[in-house]
Amino acid sequence: MNIRKILIVEDAALLHRLYDLLLYAYKRAGTKLAFARNGREALDTLAQAPDVDLILLDVNMPVMSGLEFLEHRRRHGVFERIPVIIVTTEGKEEDTVRGLEAGAAAYLKKPFEAADLHHIIGRVFAPADAAAPPRAAAGSADEQAPNAGTQPTR
Ligand SMILES: [Mg+2]
Hints:
Shape: globular
Mean pLDDT: 88
Radius of gyration: 15 Å
CATH topology: Rossmann fold
Low-confidence stretches: 131-144
CATH superfamily: Response regulator
Structural class: alpha/beta
Order of helices and strands: EHHEHEHEHEHHE
Number of strands: 6
CATH class: Alpha Beta
Distance between the termini: 24 Å
Bound molecules: magnesium ion
């Protein structure tokens, strides 16, 4: 799938730079990146430009946290068609569980490597039970990304 735009919601400006670098291949393929510094800014950004195909959502942010953003989204029924990858911190397993329960499609744990990020984006857009695209060139990604996972099928 061609991902038109990814919204990155993260309060640390340094990580905006990092995402920009790690998503270079997507940018070359035409994906636009948008940035917000907390959940409230993300809601404002989405209200103005809802043409977002994926949200990368930090948990710990001022003003409105990632979990609060997910709860707001569910309560108000807004932007629910956009898949969310929640970005949690190592050792905070409860955030991962709460994020998935609150509607995140997948999670990624900080610190992560480029391969983890690319893997989980690929998984969100090409679920394991769909016809698998030839992603195996980079190795069996399923076995190589202990820092990321998708919502278990229920
Ligand atoms: Mg943060």
